[in-house]
Amino acid sequence: MTRPTGPQVLIASDLAEGDVVFLGAEGWERDLLRAKIAYDAAEAAALDAAGKADVAANRVVDAYLVDVEVSAAGAPTPLHFREKFRAAGPSVRRDLGKQAWLQGAGDSR
Fold first, then answer.
1. Burial (CB count within 10 angstroms: exposed 0-12, middle 13-18, buried 19+), residue 82
2. Which pLDDT value is given to residue 1?
């Protein structure tokens, strides 16, 4: 694990549904806005440990910390293209994946 340079969230892929998920206060969330945000190395280490435990329990795969920017409203946005792309869902079929799920929930992201 690299030393955090700013806020981070834990991202992974859900093994049951194959969707990108984020570790939140209540467990793994599909919505990035519900992700727990680590603001220091201790919080980041706790998120990383929880992710490793869930990888070992075969709940998720490929759990890793990503740097995010946090808006004034508290909404995290990944800083790197790969995680921005993963958080948004499939780019070729907006009627599938996160886009469809968010639209069904009334979210216009």
1. exposed
2. 47
